[in-house]
């Protein structure tokens, strides 16, 4: 390591999300005093595991007859966007009326009105699932996002006006309501109990041609493919096409296990890879929207990252399951519970933690104010802690810090310098962050291959705090081994990397 005297600043895939609309970046919920006073949802629930005798049905007709009345067509319409009046390229009225000329407002308004009169409304078709007998319907956020007119069509020919109760872009779940009673509500299953290989049926309105039923199996569980904040998709090979979004994925007993959401396709049509939001996640979001007017998510106050085999070895773990804590927010629930940077969270609220994404899901779906048990591994020893989860503040999340795809890291070829006021302001470093700024990284070094970059800040080397460039250089001068554990601040968060000098070159 060298100290400098100055600071320096696979696959192509197409995801088709139903028929309309783009995901928003923030939670939107529509409530009123009347809505807030409504009683809690009363949904039908059957959590028993799927019976082995349910397999091998000679016909699914009885299941389809039971389920199809609960799946509706959701037709949406929105106003076309009107732009300002366009002149031919290079045409400027100021050439005739002078540089201070402005188009009269009444003329602009008239032009906008005329264009709006001639512009067709944007139309779209999706699907939905009736979840209560009094008119609550679950669908995808991207189906109703931006819609000002919603029509809900039942299989018996009835049509209702739909009202958006709330939507959650972070999971792509939305709830709409129709004014009706005695509707055919679907029965929910426990989606945690499904297994890969179980047979399923997808029911919806693809391309708006009418209700359609397809069949397949559960291909995988726990998929994260669309870049949403909270993903835990069921993958199926049952044919899903545009318009199926918001429809039902049911087991062979007719119980809802998921809400069809997206497909992975190079052609835009079904190619045997479809995704559905599992009912346990969709139900939690739906009930939170209806009962509270917004989604109440739990907040732990940690930066977390996945474990690699190299990191697992450094933290004295036999396997690479769990979520590695790279930073703890001061005063957060995790801080008060005694969680430390370098801990590996292995269990949360009685469930094993497989990786950072699953921990994020588990924390997010925990009711704020709940005191839950948590197991962490610290220096190879298991510890039991209790944490009182708070509500997620603003857009903050128990987020997964970005991790380099390369697992072999080193500090050879890295130049460092001290942090000064200007650099802190440029990098937006919190006042409590101390360390050595990486001013250069040789491209042929193991450090560069590992993902260390100019502008990162080294916080620790082999769990020894780094306050400045001189200390970082000293800690690297005579390493006991060629493998080091380095903690860095990068892109607004902290992360650990394993530095393996034996991999250099």
Automatic annotation (TrEMBL):
Coiled coil: none annotated. SUPFAM superfamilies: PDZ domain-like (SSF50156), Trypsin-like serine proteases (SSF50494). Residues 289-380, 400-474 form the PDZ domain. It is found in: Periplasm. One of its GO terms (cellular component) is periplasmic space. The active site is at 142 (charge relay system), 172 (charge relay system), 245 (charge relay system). Its EC number is 3.4.21.107. Keywords: Hydrolase, Periplasm, Protease, Repeat, Serine protease, Signal. It comes from the Bacteria. Substrate binds at residues 142, 172, 243-245. Residues 1-33 form the signal peptide. CDD domains: cpPDZ1_DegP-like. NCBIfam families: degP_htrA_DO. Belongs to the peptidase S1C family. This is Serine protease Do. It comes from Prosthecobacter vanneervenii.
